[in-house]
Write a structure and sequence with these properties.
By secondary structure, the chain is of the alpha+beta class. The protein has a single domain (3-148), classed as GSPII I/J protein-like (Pantoate--beta-alanine Ligase, Chain: A,domain 2). The chain has two helices and four strands, in the order ααββββ. It has helices spanning 3-14, 19-69, and strands spanning 84-94, 97-112, 115-127, 139-148. Strands 1-2-3-4 form a four-stranded antiparallel beta sheet, with helices on one face. The chain is rod-shaped, with a radius of gyration of 31 Å. The termini are far apart.
């Protein structure tokens, strides 16, 4: 047998992949795909949480704006108000069907010591994420601002 015949025979035996090589490649691919799936699930969860934080911020700022720009007499000093449920703008798909995120909104108005024409307004927005357990604390977003009453320049 000549050298060229041996080389041709060796090439023909090396052509293609064995079943074992294919199975190992498939196992590596499967592990990689599972990792990608896990990252995708985490990304979807983070997107939902981020959207709820944005919704809570918008709801809190809307409530603060209403309180800041209504009349002085209609914004009396008060302790924390009862929580009012507000429905978020976006629908959420759950196993029970499509629903909307519910946020609890409460506020308080405080007098500022030594300043009769200034009040402090605090707004708190709370909610739970889908999948949170009852023992987990509520998620919160809070915003505060001063309300000034009077002609002239605020202090």
């Amino acid at each position: 047998m000549t050298t060229s015949e041996r080389a041709a025979g060796a090439r023909s035996r090396r052509r293609g992949l064995s079943l074992l090589e294919v199975m190992i490649a498939m196992a590596i691919l499967a592990v990689g795909m599972l990792g990608m799936l896990s990252m995708q699930v985490q990304a979807l969860s983070s997107t939902s949480t981020g959207r709820h934080v944005s919704d809570a911020m918008r709801i809190g700022l809307d409530q603060l704006e209403q309180l800041k720009y209504q009349g002085w007499a209609t914004t009396p000093v008060t302790a924390w108000t009862a929580i009012v449920n507000v429905t978020g703008p976006e629908a959420i798909a759950t196993p029970a069907g499509v629903t909307r995120q519910t946020f609890g909104v409460s506020y308080r108005v405080q007098a500022v010591a030594g300043l009769t024409d200034v009040r402090l307004i605090d707004v708190r927005v709370t909610w739970t994420e889908p999948g949170d357990t009852p023992t987990m604390p509520l998620r919160r977003y809070a915003v505060s601002s001063f309300k000034y009453n009077g002609a002239g320049t605020p202090p």
